[in-house]
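testing teh design pipeline on a random one, pls ignore if ur not involved
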């Protein structure tokens, strides 16, 4: 005996009439016995289909009543069961509820962000008003040259009947020293507490370290009593050009979101750690080590089946690095820059730098400085600045730890590029940036008196190159002195006879630190040609 069960409708032939019995469970055997079993529960989906799809056809004396919608069960060449229809509707409703919930959470997040932004601006305004109301006082980081080796930093001694010509500004034994000829400085220096800052010291450049610890509480530069920062708008940073919301609005009309190398992902950014595996769009990356940890980002060294790659994990979901590096790469005539892919998540993004065929990544710094290698690297840095400024980009935070070389083994000079663009600006999109006082990264240089507030914004990158090359050349922070001809690095400030290489470095640092309002392109081109003739 053969038997089967049917849920929903069952067609039974009685004489010449076909009748459909619905909502019952039947058992059929070849002996023509039919026993009715208890009725099944009717689904909600089927009940709605009853009212809309009941058919009555009269064909050859056969009465046919359809209790289901055939269009739902038969879709093209695919046949659906009633349970599959129910599951499909269930998941559609669930998806709709999740989308509504996500939309509600995003609205609440935006409201909280706006409230926090308003609170931050009020706190900045209050702090600035309190700072302006206090009397400016000279920093106690000043010590005279003749007592520099005897008195610790932070003490001040002066004779009431003598004005010194040599003055040293010194933060500590590891920080930057400033030695300046200042014959007109009054001797009645007052003591004050050093200015505190919330920026972690390990993220500061050598110049920034000294500027933080040696600033007077009044906020004016001790090196230039006539130069003060405009606290009405620029010092407050009411509109920070590096703010994530500002950058997001700048990129709204950009075509980078149509780029095939920009991939939008749903959900949270995956956790990336050393000695682990990262899966992105079907690609598997083996994470080796951490190259650096910055404020809100980390850079890792990793590999795929074919290449060694660099991966930057950022907590900001705005693809600013991808946009800026794309601008740089499109303006470069050379083929040494790597490829970049960006994966956008709800709470951040991941950028992957892949070297071109036959190229490899190397660090910029060496354990033992090699002057010939530094000469090649200096040419590469000058070439990088020429490319950046040609497409109106400013990096504004050039340091050895965020710079990487990408080159073939025999290629000199190497192709150097930044792997972090957190402080960079686009002068083409941000046309309101007309001087260094609009750049947050330039404020330490302004406080030191190295840059004037109204100086052109590109000078920040020139100082960054000088700092980077000095560290590569001497493996020590840059110590600045000021003489009658302007600023110079102390190591190359002596007038004693020297060889052609030392003469070249003297010219190199003095030119970059005293560029003034001259156009950067001729300065960089001239220095690049002089270094090439000497080291290449």
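output:
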């Amino acid at each position: 005996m053969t038997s089967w069960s049917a849920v929903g409708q069952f067609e039974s032939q009685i004489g010449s009439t076909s009748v459909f019995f619905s909502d019952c469970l039947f058992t059929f055997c070849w002996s023509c016995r039919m026993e009715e079993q208890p009725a099944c529960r009717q689904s909600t989906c089927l009940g709605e289909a009853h009212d809309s799809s009941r058919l009555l056809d009269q064909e050859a004396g056969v009465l046919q009543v359809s209790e289901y919608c055939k269009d739902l069960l038969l879709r093209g060449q695919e046949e659906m069961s009633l349970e599959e229809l129910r599951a499909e509707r269930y998941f559609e409703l669930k998806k709709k509820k999740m989308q509504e919930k996500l939309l509600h959470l995003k609205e609440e997040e935006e409201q909280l962000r706006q409230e926090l932004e308003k609170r931050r601006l009020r706190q900045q305004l209050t702090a600035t008003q309190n700072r302006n109301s206090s009397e400016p006082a000279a920093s106690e980081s000043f010590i005279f040259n003749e007592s520099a080796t005897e008195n610790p930093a932070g003490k001040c001694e002066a004779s009431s009947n003598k004005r010194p010509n040599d003055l040293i500004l010194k933060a500590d034994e590891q920080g930057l020293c400033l030695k300046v000829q200042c014959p007109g400085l009054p001797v009645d220096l007052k003591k004050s507490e050093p200015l505190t800052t919330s920026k972690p010291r390990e993220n500061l450049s050598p110049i920034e370290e000294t500027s933080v610890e040696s600033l007077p509480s009044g906020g004016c530069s001790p090196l230039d009593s006539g130069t003060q920062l405009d606290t009405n708008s620029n010092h407050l940073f009411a509109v920070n050009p590096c703010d994530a919301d500002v950058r997001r609005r700048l990129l709204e009309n950009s075509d980078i979101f149509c780029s095939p190398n920009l991939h939008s992902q749903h959900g949270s950014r995956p956790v990336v750690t050393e000695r682990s595996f990262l899966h992105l769009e079907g690609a598997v990356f083996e994470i080796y080590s951490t190259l650096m940890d910055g404020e809100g980002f980390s850079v890792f060294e990793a590999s795929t089946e074919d290449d060694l790659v660099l991966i930057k994990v950022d907590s900001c979901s705005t693809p600013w690095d991808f946009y800026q590096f794309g601008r740089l790469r499109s303006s470069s005539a050379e083929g040494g820059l790597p490829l970049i892919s960006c994966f956008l998540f709800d709470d951040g993004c991941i950028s992957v730098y892949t070297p071109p065929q036959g190229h490899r990544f190397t660090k910029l710094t060496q354990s033992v400085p090699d002057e010939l290698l530094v000469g090649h690297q200096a040419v590469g840095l000058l070439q990088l600045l020429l490319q950046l400024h040609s497409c109106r980009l400013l990096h504004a935070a050039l340091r050895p730890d965020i710079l990487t070389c990408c080159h073939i083994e025999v290629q000199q000079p190497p192709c150097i590029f930044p792997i972090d663009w957190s402080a960079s600006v686009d002068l083409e999109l941000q046309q309101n940036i007309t001087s260094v006082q609009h750049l947050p990264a330039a404020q330490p240089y302004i406080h030191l008196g190295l840059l004037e507030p109204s100086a052109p914004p590109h000078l920040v990158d020139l100082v960054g190159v000088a700092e980077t090359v000095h560290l590569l050349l001497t493996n020590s922070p840059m110590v600045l002195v000021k003489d009658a001809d302007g600023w110079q690095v102390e190591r190359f400030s002596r007038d004693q006879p020297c060889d052609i290489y030392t003469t070249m470095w003297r010219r190199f640092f003095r030119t970059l630190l005293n560029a003034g309002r001259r156009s950067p392109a001729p300065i960089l081109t001239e220095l690049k040609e002089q270094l090439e003739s000497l080291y290449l």
